[in-house]
């Protein structure tokens, strides 16, 4: 059973930084990628970044490229999202996800609020 637990969210001023963590369990060879998406009230889900399981390649949405960095630790099955130069429009609930061929799994999310 896949379980993902996000942490590290909070309230920060514009220009500040946060690091989100995602503790993953139940991962296996079927995982194609692990990453982060966010969802703000009234807005569609936005995929932010992911790490490919096969080659470790990373991808970023244009909205966060150059500001956010995804990384992972195989030792403790944790994925991080370092977020710098935060903007008020980054305010959302951030979710960690695992993508398999037929389904995605995600955690309960962590709230990030950026004040102006």
What is the C-alpha radius of gyration, as a whole number of Å? 13 Å
Query: Terminal Cα separation, in Å?
Result: 40 Å
Shape: globular
Please estimate the helix content.
under 10%
Key terms:
globular; mainly beta; about 120 residues; 11 strands; about 55% strand; 4-stranded antiparallel β-sheet; 7-stranded mixed β-sheet
Describe what this molecule looks like in 3D.
The chain contains no helices and eleven strands. With about 120 residues, it is mainly beta. A hairpin with a 4-residue loop joins strand 7 and strand 8 (about 80-85).
Please sum up the structure shown:
The protein is an all-beta fold and 116 residues long.
Secondary structure: elements and pairs:
Blueprint: E1 3-7, E2 10-13, E3 18-25, E4 33-39, E5 46-52, E6 58-60, E7 68-73, E8 78-83, E9 92-99, E10 104-106, E11 110-115
Parallel strand pairs: 2-11
Antiparallel strand pairs: 1-3, 3-8, 4-5, 4-9, 5-6, 7-8, 9-10, 9-11
């Amino acid at each position: 059973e896949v379980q993902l637990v996000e942490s590290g969210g909070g309230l920060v001023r514009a220009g500040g930084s946060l690091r989100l963590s995602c503790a993953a369990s139940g991962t296996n060879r079927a995982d194609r990628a692990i990453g982060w998406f966010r969802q703000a009230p009234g807005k569609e889900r936005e995929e932010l970044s992911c790490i490919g399981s096969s080659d470790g390649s990373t991808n970023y949405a244009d909205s966060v490229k150059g500001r956010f960095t995804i990384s992972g630790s195989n030792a403790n099955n944790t994925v991080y999202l370092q977020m710098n130069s935060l903007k008020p429009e980054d305010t959302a609930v951030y979710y960690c996800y695992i993508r398999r061929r037929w389904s995605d799994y995600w955690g309960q999310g962590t709230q990030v609020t950026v004040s102006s």
